[in-house]
Specification:
Elements (H helix, E strand, L loop, with lengths): L9 E3 L6 H6 L3 E5 L4 H5 L1 H7 L7 E7 L15 H18 L4 E7 L1 H4 L6 H13 L3 E5 L6 H16 L8 E5 L13 E5 L4 H9 L2 H4 L5 H15 L11 E6 L2 H4 L5 H20 L3
Helix pairs in contact: 6-7, 8-10
Bound molecules: zinc ion.
Amino acid sequence: MMIFSIVSAELFVPDGVSEVEALARTTHLGIGAHQDDLEIMALEGILACFGQPEKWFTGVVVTDGGGSPRDSLYARYNDEEMKAVRRREQKKAAYVGEYGAVAFLDFPSSTVKDPNNSAPQNDLQMLIAAAQPEVVYIHNLADKHPTHIGTAMQTIRALRALPKVQRPKRLVGCEVWRDLDWMLDTDKVVFQLDEHENIALSLVGIFDSQIVGGKRYDLATMGRRRAHATYHASHSVDAAQMINFGMDLTPLLTDDTLDVSAYVLGHIDRFAQAVRDNLKPW
Ligand SMILES: [Zn+2]
């Protein structure tokens, strides 16, 4: 049985197999800061495993969701009640998306954002070592939400602390609180998300406590995918109807000396150069 840093942490296995078995069968792992992030950012992994007996998506939610905004039906909920609601919503998503497991690490955001606190890194390292997934989805490192950055950096540290044989073949940074359409097309990882659009819509719609106040994350997430598919290539008929973009972070795992910040800023430099080149003749 997994022993996590926080007492209230939980490994939820929808189909009831043992924790060891649930983690060991993982092929695709998504690590997000909040309840609902995985469904927005890691749909490629969820769909790759949906209805596939040999492939399993495992989700990790790093924070407790206690500080989340609340409105309408939830306006009078205190932090503890809100945490319970958000955990229940994430479990509903795990059923609908047929996840192999969801780990709730239950850290306060302040812990996750603290570069000197390695407790989240330690829990993540234990989970990744048990799961040894082929692909890992994390927040992209140009995201504007500090807790997303903290979650992604705690994960990168956890991955780099593992021996190379235990690391995934692919690590991708995904879109939530900032799109990645600004990247050069040659830098983009393209997630084709046309299959099971009904399931995708359900997955983002389940998180009622986040949507009810008027923040239509469900519509916005589906709209972003549709917009990306339409505007990705200007010349041809759309090959895909639904797309998310990712930043390939795998080089950070194959080369431990690669500076994280310099690697990410390289993408911005190439974007800036492309804008400069377009304007130069004028
Ligand atoms: Zn989030």
